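Lab notebook, bench 4. The sequencing result for the construct came back, and we need a structural model before the next group meeting so we can plan mutations. Quick request posted to the team channel:

Model the 3D structure of this chain.
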Amino acid sequence: MTEPTVQFHSHFIRITILILVLTPSGVEARDESVRATESATPEPVRIYRTPEERREAGLGKQVTEWLKIGGVIDVEKEYKRNHSIARRNTSEDPDPELAIELGFEIQYDEWLEAEVLFAIEDNGRRHFQELDEGLIGIDHANFGVKLGQLYVPFGAYYSHFVTGPLLEFGQTRGTAVQLDYTLWDAIELAGFIFDSKVDRQNNKNEIDWGLNLEYTSADESLVVGAGYLSDLAESQEELLLDFQNRQLRSVPAWNAYARMGAPPFELTAEVLKAIRSFKEFERNANKPFSYNVELAYFPLDFLQFAVRLEFSTELADEPKWQYGVAGTWRPFENLSISFDYLYGTYKQGFAFDDRDNALHSHHMIGTQLTIGF
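Done. Here's the predicted structure in token form:
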């Protein structure tokens, strides 16, 4: 990237932050759907705690009766210190990353909606922009249907940290059709099909599918869900990228999650596991499994603390155990500042650094500035 381009991005970030913090419209940035989700506990200082809430937070400003616009800006910086068994230490200190999501939502009456979300990311070495989601939704009575480019309902991926949980390797997006049905205003059953991006030896361009069942209590203090995905290779992680996205067989997976709120605390737990192994991978890393548990504490409505414990096995290059602490401060309604620290330990002989030294442990620090508008 040329020097003028770097200077442009630097000035762009500073000006954008100044305008959004001082503009009164930022106070209205919280989407009503996010407020409803958080009604059981004190309003979290983070604008979002799941990838889905992040996308919803990008639809915060009611421009007309039928149009909402808005967005989320993240400026993130991470630092990692690796410790090898041979006592050789290495550092990973990537450039800060800028991520922007801009959203538009059209609502007609109560039964028809259209939603478009654009995503931009830049970390100094690479820049990309894409259509994150683009869908049409129809609701009638207890039934709903969505079609277009969307994230399928497989997992929640709860996190109060800057660094996402290890089990995010299951998050999946595609050109999909999703059907859902709500029972007793508490139980939602969703099914979906989507185009396959992974080629199989005997049958290319198959349709993949999945199911999700979720229960939400009347006061929204308890959410429990579970899901199934027909092929984990279809996830955003692109697990088979080194194999030109070709596989010998599909690898289904299951997921379960829960969120319990008891002010001023919130407990989240989630687990994700491949049902069978990838034939393309090494035997010690061909059937990934991970779980994540976090406890958040809200002493004040503008301050949050959280602790995390997570475990993984057969998840390539990732630690076996990882735990840490995080804190978030919100000086303004539409601005939050987050910091976290994580310590991870590796299974012996499982992961290696760039110099081929077997890793023993690591220290990781993450910081993030988040703006909603």
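Residues 3-372 form a domain with the Porin fold (CATH 2.40.160.10).
Will bring this to the meeting.
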